[in-house]
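Posting for a labmate who doesn't have an account.
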Amino acid sequence: MSRSYEELEAEAASVSVEGWDFSWLDGRATEQRPSWGYQQQMGARMARASAALDIQTGGGEVLAGVPTLPRLIVATESWPPNVAKATRLLHPRGVVVVADSDEPPLPFADEAFDLVVSRHPVTTWWPEISRVLQPGGTYFSQQVGPASVFELVEYFLGPLPAEVHRKRHPDDARVEAEAAGLEIIDLRLERLRTEFFDIGAVIYFLRKVIWMVPGFTVDQYRPRLRALHERLQRDGPFVATTTRFLVEARKPS
């Protein structure tokens, strides 16, 4: 028997959205993963590094899964609940978690790290990354690409202008990285399938990934949510396209 809209809304609106763990969506949504395996590749680089920085670590879940960490490692995060969660998770691994505003400047000296990583940063401050990297050091990042999950975003906001669809394009990352004095080693984009099976998954996702529909609240969008609930029950999963790109850049020796 299918669950009512009211049940699904109440459940998804009350669950915690701390951290960057999406396991609550298991069985309710699926997201195809990029082929490159970011965490594994990042872990291999961490094992070779001597001093590393993880920018916008979220709740620290990705970094905590790395088998071998360098002797000196720092993570930054801006959202207070995530700072607390990352501290609990990462301190036992010897990682210092720094509360940071995610605005320049990074709170570190010039040439402090030989490896800087970041998974899904909201903004990439390329001049700051270049500043804190040692000569020969590497920046390694998986980022959200252009128009990611825009089928869902535009369901709530309506059609968005072409220039908004173009934002977060990897070609722009190349230009900005090179302008900051970095050399691009690897740059890859993939388009991936995402499915939402019930309205609870949609509500949870939009509460957690707050920049998708800025200012999203259940109260504000309840008519659209109810209509989408009925569509999901009638037609099956809501399908969207996720975009991800991998970028690796080096500071010249």
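Reply:
Got it, the structure tokens are right above this. The longest strand covers residues 183-196.
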